[in-house]
Design goal:
The protein starts with a helix and ends with a helix. By secondary structure, the protein is an alpha/beta fold. α2 (79-93) runs parallel beside α11, α3 packs parallel to α4 and α15 (643-659) packs antiparallel against α20. β11, α8 (287-291) and β12 form a beta-alpha-beta unit. The strands form nine sheets. It has an eight-stranded mixed β-sheet with strand order 10-9-11-12-13-18-19-20, with helices on both faces. Strands 1-5-2-6-7-8 form a six-stranded mixed β-sheet, with helices on both faces. Strands 27-29-28 form a three-stranded mixed β-sheet, with no helix packed on it. The radius of gyration is 52 Å and the shape is rod-shaped. The protein has 21 helices and 29 strands. It is 40% helix and 15% strand. It has four domains: 2-59 and 70-193 and 348-473, Rossmann fold (3-Layer(aba) Sandwich), CATH 3.40.50; 195-343 and 481-528, 3-Layer(aba) Sandwich (Rossmann fold); 545-595, no CATH class; 606-744 and 762-870, Rhopdopsin 7-helix transmembrane proteins. 41% of the residues are buried.
Length: 871
């Protein structure tokens, strides 16, 4: 619509225009467009930014008010953009190998960051010099080859809407415009770093330094909204949280500045009051001029908060600039800023070119305004009346300007313009060479001077090495293929400004190697005392704890809770604790897994050694008693109560002590089945012998009564029957156990936290307790019979001793069951061994110690007379 209205205005005023010829000149009723021009065979148009911004309230339907000082917001640093284009053209024209027999010229207009001015300037580029005659050839032919511009995406879009009609290439040195369905199909050659690479670089930078809690400031426009909708979610999926999201308003009239000041004050307080130490800025070229307001807009009473440092991360589009009235403002808050910039090597020759600038240049329509704004002076011949303020002499030195005002070193934007001019020159050279070849081969060309739409074909295939040593080429989308430099801003107390390259972003490298950073080269804000800044919502959860997200808060804000029993976390900020492998167990602090010790009752530890010693000692005592009894086998005390039962009982007790050795040592496939079965059968034989002895005594005394039928049971046959029958029952139980579910070696990972228990799995627990139950049944019968026969008169009556021994036996095994069930690992085995030793020792000592005492120490009592007398 804007283009259509401009065309109507031109046609209405130029009623005398004929096709290809215009004989009228339009006078502009408002501020004229500045121009910087140089003639040549080929003209490059420049819609650049001098850093002068008009109010956004201007419209095509209203005449703007007379110019007032507060209408313009001047950024002198933008003047370098014009110098970069002029310098590139100068180098090309002085190079005989590039565009031979042709000269390159340029017409540069300031966009004023204004749609109306931009459309007007674009139409002027398409018209004859000095005439506003769109779509007409006025006086001479204007060989416009390409247009470079603009700095901001909206300006580039305004230019493209007109150039697209004429198929003239446009090379932008700012970010790509945001396209939609209504403006689809516009083509651009982008000289600026690709934003997707910048975003990937910023994300890699944040993750490298583990900055997961950041603030974000964006422009309040379509590009800023697209950034919020598409890029920030990608950051979130990578673990980045956002403490705040603020939007920068577009620069406007002073009449609207009060609202902007209020918004800026709130923004400053939110930024400086936030716990996030990192602030990412996605803005336009002039955003820095707005950010420099922030320290002066605080609504907080405590102004000491202004000294709090932040690490600012800024995209390549935003340069370190100042408005004219910000000349002496402190910029210390941006010291240590990290920004991105298109990769290039410095051009020392450009320094000399900049230093040679003089305000007396006639063709440069910008230099006087720049000079007056930069040096805060006026030229006497540029005003009427008395001069107020400093007089410009033209001898002022550019090196005296602060870095925020002007830099002699080429900036990223200027290098993009410089590269764009060279790209057009190489494309024109290729196109001229192609035409020359076609003429040589006899082809005729019509209107060859006007067919610059053919330049697109050559531009997309341009590839050359710049004078700075960088390779310049485009991909199939018209985007320059280039890496990015990571720049550290150094702002001294005297407000001098320096850039230090501290890293590189190489889009062609693998994603995990694309960003390289030299941490030691980075200078942080003084608030951090040159320590690595940390930016987290919550201090890291240490190993041994896990994160618990706070309800209603971003996922970076969480509480730290200790790991539950049996789980660990061995890294910071783990989302959950996890269990150790079965072979490991958690440490006391629950921050690492410790390998478990393999545990079994071995001969190498004191407990195993002591138990083995006692087992062997009692076995030796048993063998000694057995030997003594065998030696005195013809004595009355040995013959009393069935001598064979005595020997069988002693042998079974000896085996009971020795079977303890099966329980000590690492469980094996052979020892595990033998342990319980051997113990059960041997003990059953021992208890059966005790039962047989007791029954023999009872039957013998009952048989002495007149007419007793018990006499036929007196003798060895009854005792042997009792021992064999009782032992065979236990042997049958053990055989069934071994046949169905025998014991086997096993490991227990979980019963004891710090140990892997190597044990004998009983196989069938029912069979195990059946063996113990049967043995207990025999012991109970023996104890009952012995208790009833304890008062029978007999010099060598064993009933009293058997009663006491069985009392000990039953007590031991009754206490064994709960104790066995309440212990784990090798101590379960130790409890069973202890029960075997104590119960066996009880039988041995209670039954045989009195007899052994008489045989060895009182042999005079070991005779028949003593036996008969006692009876």
């Amino acid at each position: 619509m804007a283009v259509f209205m401009v065309l109507l205005l031109a046609l209405f005023l130029c009623q005398a225009c004929q096709a290809y010829v215009v004989k009228c000149t339009i006078q502009y009723p408002h501020r004229p467009l500045h121009m910087y021009r140089q003639s040549g065979d080929y003209i490059i148009g420049g819609i650049l930014s001098h850093g002068t911004f008009f109010s956004s309230s201007e419209s095509f339907n209203e005449e703007p008010p007379p110019p007032l000082p507060e209408e313009l917001l001047v950024v002198p640093k933008g003047y370098q953009h014009f110098l970069a284009l002029a310098f590139a053209v100068k180098e090309i024209n002085e190079n005989p190998q590039l565009l031979p027999n042709h000269t390159l010229g340029f017409h540069i207009y300031d966009s004023y960051d204004n749609a109306k001015k931009t459309y007007h300037a674009t139409m002027l580029l398409l018209s004859a010099l000095g005439f506003f005659s769109p779509n007409y050839l006025c006086y001479i032919q204007n060989n416009l080859a390409a247009v470079i511009g603009g700095l901001d995406s909206e300006i580039s879009l305004h230019v493209a809407t007109i150039l697209h009609i004429y198929k003239i290439p446009q090379l932008t040195y700012g970010p790509a415009p945001l396209m939609n369905d209504k403006i689809h199909g516009l083509s651009f050659y982008q000289m600026a770093p690709q934003e997707r690479y910048q975003f990937a670089g910023i994300l890699s930078l944040l993750l490298h330094f583990r900055w997961i809690w950041i603030g974000v400031i964006v422009m309040d426009n379509d590009n800023g909204e697209q950034f919020v909708q598409t890029v920030l979610p990608l950051f979130s999926r990578s673990g980045i949280c956002f403490a705040f999201l603020e939007r920068i308003a577009k620069l406007s009239f002073a009449s609207e500045s009060y609202n902007n000041i209020q918004k800026g004050a709130k923004m400053h307080d939110k930024v400086m009051g936030s716990t996030a130490n990192i602030v990412m800025v996605y803005g336009e070229s002039y955003s820095m001029a707005f950010l420099r307001w922030l320290p002066y807009l605080s609504e907080l009473e405590d102004k000491t908060m202004n000294v709090k440092g932040k690490v600012w991360i800024i995209t390549a589009q935003t340069e370190f600039t100042s408005l004219v009235f910000q000349r002496n403002w402190d910029s210390g808050m941006f010291h240590g800023t990290i920004s991105f910039r298109i990769h290039f090597n410095d051009l020392p020759v450009f320094h000399q070119y900049v230093e040679s600038r003089n305000p007396s240049s006639i063709e440069d329509g910008f230099i006087k305004d720049f000079w007056q704004q930069a040096f805060d002076c006026v030229f006497p011949n540029s005003i009427i009346g008395n001069v107020e303020g400093n007089i410009c002499t033209g001898e002022e030195k550019l090196e005296s300007l602060p870095g925020a005002f002007f830099e002699k070193s080429m900036t990223g934007h200027s290098y993009s313009i410089y590269s764009a001019v060279y790209a057009v020159a190489h494309a024109l050279n290729m196109m001229s060479s192609a035409r020359l070849r076609r003429i040589v081969y006899g082809e005729r060309l019509k209107n060859q001077k006007r067919q610059f739409w053919q330049l697109h074909h050559f531009l997309i295939s341009v590839s050359y090495n710049s004078t700075a040593g960088d390779e310049i080429s485009f991909n199939q989308n018209g985007e320059v293929i280039s890496g990015l430099d990571v720049i550290n801003w150094i702002i001294s107390p005297n407000q001098s400004f320096h850039r230090v390259r501290v890293g590189r972003m190489n889009p062609q490298a693998p994603p995990d190697q694309a960003l390289t950073i030299d941490e030691d080269a980075i200078t942080w804000h003084s608030w951090f005392n040159q320590a690595h800044p940390i930016s987290v919502c919550t201090q890291s959860c240490q190993p041994g704890s896990s994160k618990k997200v706070k309800e209603g808060e971003p996922f970076c804000c969480y509480d730290c809770i200790p790991c539950p029993e049996g789980k660990i976390s061995n890294q910071e900020d783990m989302n959950d604790c996890y269990k150790c492998a079965d072979e490991d167990y958690p440490s006391k602090n629950r921050d690492l897994c410790i390998p478990k010790d393999i545990s079994f009752l071995s001969y190498e530890e004191p407990l195993g050694i002591n138990l083995a010693f006692f087992a062997l000692s009692f076995a030796f005592i048993t063998a000694l008693i057995l030997g003594t009894f065998l030696k005195h086998h013809d004595t009355p005390i040995v013959k009393a109560n069935n001598r064979n039962l005595t020997y069988t009982l002693l042998v079974s007790l000896l085996l009971c002590f020795l079977c303890v050795l099966l329980f000590i040592g690492q469980p094996e496939k052979v020892t595990c089945p033998l342990r319980q079965t051997a113990f059960g059968i041997i003990f059953s034989v021992a208890v059966s012998c005790v039962l047989a002895k007791t029954v023999t005594v009872v039957v013998a005394f009952m048989a002495t009564k007149p007419g007793s039928r018990m006499r036929k049971w007196v003798g060895k046959r009854l005792a042997n029957t009792i021992v064999l029958s009782c032992s065979l029952v236990q042997a049958g139980i053990c055989t069934l156990w071994l046949a169905t579910s025998p014991p086997f070696p096993d490991v227990d990972m979980h019963s004891v936290t710090e140990e892997i228990i190597v044990e004998c799995n009983e196989g069938s627990v029912t069979m195990f307790y059946s063996v113990l139950g049967y043995m207990g049944f025999l012991a109970f019968i023996s104890f009952t019979v012995a208790f009833l026969a304890r008062k029978l008169p007999d010099s060598f009556n064993e009933s009293k001793f058997i009663t006491f021994s069985m009392l000990v036996f039953c007590s031991v095994w009754l206490s064994f069951v709960p104790t066995y069930l309440s212990t784990k690992g090798k101590y379960m085995v130790a409890v069973e061994i202890f029960s075997i030793l104590v119960s066996s020792a009880g039988l041995l000592l209670c039954i045989f110690s009195p007899k052994y005492y008489i045989i060895v120490f009182r042999p005079e009592l070991n005779n028949r007379e003593q036996l008969i007398r006692r009876k």
